[in-house]
């Protein structure tokens, strides 16, 4: 389908939108305004972790909406304490700060890391080492942290204080550490960068380097967190603990909410007045996020994600074997998977959409599969069948053009 290009639209032209709109969703399915059903393996870009219109979340939203939506953080918000305690119990963290998005969670993480060193008498320690291929958000600070030219172009000098190194280049990483270094920030599994996992040994080495040099380890778990890889947070697979982590996307399962998690020591510099958010942690967001955690932290849920993730990965490997001219490898963990393509990933995503399967492109010519964590075997089989048809269509199109 063609992209929306209407010059009379009141909207900013910042999205190359597909000419397709949906009116409702049911679990892993989206129903378009023309009635056609699509199997959603895009999940709002890893957001809809419980699918569409999950009854427990809907009930929580309705109940809270009839009570109280917003009061501001001038007052106590009991839901924040309850959700914070739940997150602390489930993770490495001792304390949390709630915002509205992933970018805000990363911004808070950056400020927390810098403020920590300031409070310890080292205000010069403000630089943060990040990694090529990373995506940390769209604010001025987070595009500077990511360092990708396509996101930085046209917005003036990049915000200072970030040093990018190549993923896996231990020599460059050690050389980047200096007296002004405050932290190392990394995605344990790059999402926008093309579903690129950071090896367990490398994550452990980062933890050791931070301990050796008095740095904070900051993990961006915006896309990889909330059970997406089969663990609540992806870094758990490596058996390490960060000092700070940013989580969002799946936390609200579609409702805007993000959180910065930290140890009490790492957050010790964030005293009254150092940070804030008008909408962050309002009662409505807390009720929805609490309902999401009820499900994800329920007995057996993450085991289900691991089983279905392995099943999907195995079936996608068979697809790669069947279409070696178009796709070459499957990578990722749990239900955060990507297929490295030989043909343009946009062509494959478009062909899948024509077959009623929604995928999303990523860097390194990858298409991502990010289904709801509640996905079942029947829907996995259906998705793989539709992807097979899409790849066949792409192959036939290439043959006809040659």
Layout: helices, strands, pairs:
Elements lengths: L21 E5 L2 E4 L4 E4 L2 H4 L8 H11 L12 H13 L4 E5 L2 H18 L7 E5 L8 H7 L2 H4 L9 E4 L4 H7 L4 E6 L2 E2 L5 E2 L2 H14 L2 E5 L23 E4 L10 E5 L20 H14 L4 H22 L4 E7 L2 E6 L3 H10 L2 E2 L1 E3 L3 E4 L7 H25 L1
Parallel strand pairs: 3-15, 5-6, 5-7, 7-10, 10-11
Antiparallel strand pairs: 1-2, 2-3, 4-12, 8-9, 11-12, 13-14, 14-17, 16-17
Helix pairs in contact: 2-9, 3-9, 10-12, 11-12
Q: Kindly, what is the distance between the CA atoms of the first and last residues, rounded to a whole number of angstroms? A: 23 Å
CATH homology superfamily name of the largest domain: Type I PLP-dependent aspartate aminotransferase-like (Major domain)
Return residue spans where pLDDT drops below 50 for at least 5 consecutive residues: 1-5
Radius of gyration: 21 Å
> Percent helix among the residues?
25-40%
Domain tally: 2
Strand order of the largest sheet: 4-12-11-10-7-5-6
Count of separate DSSP helical elements? 12
The CATH class label of the largest domain is Alpha Beta
Amount of beta strand: 15-25%
- By DSSP, the count of extended strands is 17
Taken from the alpha-carbon principal axes, the silhouette is: globular
Structural class: alpha/beta
